[in-house]
Amino acid sequence: MLKIDNLVAGYGKVKVLHGISIHVPKGKTVALIGSNGAGKTTTLRALSGMLKPESGTIVLSDKNITGLTSHEITRLGLAHSPENRRVFSTLPVMDNLLLGAFPRLTGMRQKGDVDGDINRMFELFPRLKERKAQLAGTLSGGEQQMLAMARALMLNPDVLLLDEPSMGLSPRLVEEIFHTIERLKKATITMLLVEQFAAAALDVSDFGYVMENGHIRTSGEASALKNDPAVKAAYLGGGH
Amino acid sequence: MQILMQLIVSGISVGMIYGVIAFGYQLTFATSKTLNFGQGEALMLGALVGLTTVNFLIGNSLGNFWAYVLMLPVVLAFGALQGSVVEWLGVRPAMRAKSEAGWIMATIALGIIFKNLAENIWGRDALRFPSPLPEASLSFGGIRIQPMEIVVVIGAIVLMVAVELFNRYSIYGKAVVATSNDRDAAGLMGINTNRIITFSYALSSMSAAFAGVLVAPVTLTGATMGAVLGLKAFAVAIIGGLSSGLGVVIGGLILGITETLTGYYISTGYKDVPGLLLLLIVLSLKPSGLFGKAAIKKV
Questions:
Q1: Following DSSP, what letter does each residue of B131-143 receive, concatenated?
Q2: Half-sphere exposure (CA, 13 Å, Cβ side) for B122?
Q3: Contacts of B285 by beta carbon, 8 Å cutoff, 6+ apart
Q4: Residue B269: partners with Cβ closer than 8 Å, 6 or more residues away
Q5: DSSP state, B90?
Q6: pTM value?
Q7: Which of A69, A114, B61, B166 is least surrounded by CB atoms within 10 angstroms?
Q8: Which residues in chain A have their CB less than 8 angstroms from residue B298's CB?
C-alpha cells in the first residue's frame, strides 16, 4: 500500500534521512520507533510532502508520489496527523472535521458519506461530539489529539500517518489513544505509527521498524522485535 | 451640536471607505502574512475602469443609475484579476525565495507601474464620476447627507458581511480560514494553499476596486487618488489590528471622524495629522492594534 525505497531527505544542507526503506502493507499497522532525533517525524514529513525528498521513491497504492506537494498527496489518499496536532484553533471542532474531508467535499476525491463519517468519528471520540461547536483552540491537549486523528480519518485515507499521538498526554489518556488505535486497526485501516512509547506501539502493530540517526537499524514482525534483546535494551527499557 | 453631528456623519462615510481598503489589507495578511502596498492603486484602477465603463454605458443611452449597477460586476472582475496579477508577479516569487522584504518592494513597484499606466491612459487630471443617485443632499433634522454617502456605508457593510458569511459557511471559505491558521496543516487537508493566497489577493484588490467606485461619485477620480487613501487605510489597518475584522471598521471610523473634526475645528491643513499621531501612539503602546490579538512569535 505504501512503499518507501531508499528515501533521503533533510533540511537544507543537513541530511536527516540517509536512505530508509519501509513497507506498509494494506490493512496493516506499522510502528516506527527510535529515540528523539532519530528522524521519525522527518520521515512522516517527507512522506506527506511537507518536506521535499532529495532522492528515493515513495509509492502509494501503485502511484509514485515522490516530490508531489502535500495537497496533491493528500488528495491521493495519504492522511497525516502531524506532530503537535496542528488543529485549526480559531475554527470549531465541526469545521476541523469538515476540512479533513476537504478533497471529498470539493470533488477531488470520492465523496462517500461525509455526514455518516462525522457520526462515526463522534462514536469513536464521544468527547468531540460534546464539544463539536467549541473552538479547537479551547480544547484540552487530549481532545486536540483526538481531533487531529479524527480530522485525518475524515479523508477516508488509504494510509494514515500518526505522529506521536501520545505526546504530552496523561497516562490515562495515552491508554485511551492506544485503545483507539487498536479499534482503527480492527477496522483494517492501514497505519504508519510513530511513537516514543515503543512497547505500546509494538503491541498494537503488525510490523516494526527501529530508526537510529536517520537509518533503519532493524525491522521485522512487531512480536519478534519486542523480544529482540538489542531492541529491548535500547528502546523498551524502564524509561517507557 | 448640529455642526458636530454633521461632521461626524460626514466622517462616517469617509471612514467606511478607509475600513474597506484596510479590510483588503487584512485579507492577504491573514493567509500569507504579506500585504499589497499597491492597494491604493488597486482602488484607483477600479475607479477609473469603472468610470470608463459607466461612460461607455451612458453613451449607449443607459441612465446613470443602471450604468452604475451594470458597471459593478465589470469592476469587481477587473479587481480580482488585477489582484491575482499582483500576487503572481510580486508576491509569489518573493515567498518562494523565502525573501523577508521582497514582496514589499515588488508590490510598491507594481503600484507605481499601475499609476504610470493610469496616467497614460486616463491623463493626470481629476475626472468627474457620474453619480448614480441625485447629488442633492437629504436633510435629517438639519443634518445633510448625500444619498451616495449612504450607499458607501451600506456597500461597505454588505461587502464585509458577504466575505464573513463565505468564510463561515462555505467549505472554500473554511479552507481560507484554515490556511490563515496554519498553512502547512491546511496543505495536509488537501488544500492548495498557493491558490488560496492568490484568491485572497484577488478578493483584496476586488474590495479596493469596489471601494474605488463607491467613493468616486463623492470625490473625483484620477491616477493620483489612490496613494493617500492607500496610506491612510494602512494606518487604519494598523490602528484596528491586522487580524481583527471588526477593528478596521472602528479604526476607519475613528480616522474618518477625527479628520473631519480637525478639518473644521483646527484647520484643513492639519486634517491628516491626528490619524497619523494616533497611528504612532497605537504602534508604541499596542503594536498588535487596538483590537488585534497579540501575536505570539514562536522561537
A1: PSS--SPEEETTE
A2: 27
A3: none
A4: none
A5: I
A6: 0.92
A7: B61
A8: none
Pair (A163, A240) in one structural domain: yes
User: DSSP secondary-structure letter at A135?
Assistant: B
d(CA A191, CA A26): 9
Per-residue pLDDT of chain B (299 residues; tens, 9 = 90+): 888 999 999 999 999 999 999 999 999 999 999 999 999 999 999 999 999 999 999 999 899 999 999 999 999 999 999 999 999 999 999 988 888 889 999 999 999 999 999 999 999 999 999 999 998 889 888 899 999 999 999 999 999 999 999 999 999 999 999 999 999 999 999 999 999 999 999 999 999 999 999 999 998 999 999 998 998 999 899 888 887 778 899 999 999 999 999 989 988 888 888 888 888 888 888 877 777 765 544 44
**Alpha-carbon gap: B187 to the closest alpha carbon of chain A (Å):** 5
Cβ contact, residue pair B188, A105, below 8 Å = no
Contact criterion met (CB below 8 Å) for B118 and B44: yes
Grid coordinates representing B283 are: 504602534
Q: What total number of domains does chain B contain?
A: 1
Range of the domain at A145: 87-156
For residue B247, report the phi and psi dihedrals to the nearest 5 degrees: -55, -40
- A82 lies in a domain? no
The domain tally of chain A equals 2
Nearest by CB to B191, which of A95, A102, A152? A102
Q: Please give the backbone phi and psi of residue A88, each rounded to the nearest 5 degrees, phi first.
A: -85, 100
Does residue B128 form part of some domain? yes
Residues of B within an 8 Å Cβ radius of A: 171-172, 174-175, 177-178, 180-182, 184-193
B28 falls within a domain:
yes
Q: How many CA atoms lie within 13 A of A57 on its CB side?
A: 7
Same domain, A212 and A142: no
Tell me, yes or no, if A52 comes closer than 8 A to chain B by beta carbon.
no
| CATH number assigned to the domain comprising residue A199 | 3.40.50.300
**Which residues 6+ apart lie within 8 Å of B237 measured at CB?**
B22, B25, B26, B29, B248, B251, B289
Question: Within a 13 Å sphere around the CA of A30, how many CA atoms are in the beta-carbon half?
Answer: 24
ipTM for this model: 0.95
| DSSP-assigned states of every residue in B199-250 | HHHHHHHHHHHHHHHHHTTTS-B-TTHHHHHHHHHHHHHHHH-TT-HHHHHH
- Residues B18, B234: Cα–Cα separation, whole Å: 8
